[in-house]
Amino acid sequence: MLNRRHLLAYATTFAAVALAGPLGPAQASDAPQLQIFVPAAPGGGWDQTARTMEQVLRAENLISGAQITNVGGAGGTVGLPQFINQWKGRESAIMVGGMVMTGAIIANKSPATLDQTTPIARLTGEFLALVVPANSPFNSLQDFVEALKADPTKVPVAGGSAGGSDHILFGLVAKASGVKPTDLSYVPFAGGGEALAALLGNQVAAGISGYGEFAEQVKAGTLRVLAISADERQAGIDAETFKEAGVDVELFNWRGIFAPPGITEENRAALIAMIEKMATSKAWKDETDKRSWTPILLTGEAYSQFLVEDTAKITAILKDLGLAS
Predict the structure, then answer these.
(1) DSSP 3-state assignment of 225?
(2) CATH topology of domain 4-124+255-320
(3) What pTM was estimated for this model as a whole?
(4) What is the Cα–Cα distance from 31 to 92, expressed in whole angstroms?
(5) Measured between alpha carbons, how far is 47 from 17 in angstroms, rounded to an integer?
(6) Residue 76 and residue 39: Cα distance in Å, rounded?
(7) Are strands 118-133 and 223-228 parallel, antiparallel or unpaired?
């Protein structure tokens, strides 16, 4: 359990690290066992985040082991009530979630919400890319926007599930360009492979997803990137950000950490300290680089405020898209 003893142990350990370098095996004996709740099926982004965290936390001697529990369904809204009600007060437990869950809570009118949890940290973000087939008449984002303005029904865009991050980005781009989001022609697909096939088969005008979904085809020259939703240009990607191209939109499909309700402030501080130590380690940087995850660490009250603002933004665009009341 992450109780007073562990909090004091962390404080002592962190001070020792500053003076003596990496943790040694003897210091790992006091590390707690961690329970990680993943409100999604194995193999997805949240599950990958949980298993990568376990690997790095163990390597850094911040935990002695971890048990991962997967409860999938409806963008996380099937598992969330279980985490809130059945895991309440567990001091050595965390949940991995993210922006997709925020949208699912709103769209599904879920009675269980993230403000019933204890926010710990925002960890990573994945920016999205707007791509077109190589032979597309759209040579720039402005070409794409002008076509949207002329007739949005003639610019079908492929992406993931309705109301997900891809759909949200499309809605934000439309709104920023003066186009009614409800007029958009959005074509949702259950999997990235289906959306990619529609793109390569010229069945849609463009596609939106995480850049990694399109990277191989972009390198092969069969797809072109019109813009990315990052806050700045990314190394190795020959594309402007939306803001650079004149569309005031920025979006990260973020992933973060939550603790159950009912834990103490002391325990919350210990969990934040543990995650901050993990997130600033070389092992974590190596993993995020390998997986093309952008580190966007935010903890404590700043993270709580971010969640309030992000929920308001997503609620507004889902209403604009006709997916929320």
Answers:
(1) strand
(2) D-Maltodextrin-Binding Protein; domain 2 (3.40.190)
(3) 0.80
(4) 11
(5) 30
(6) 5
(7) antiparallel
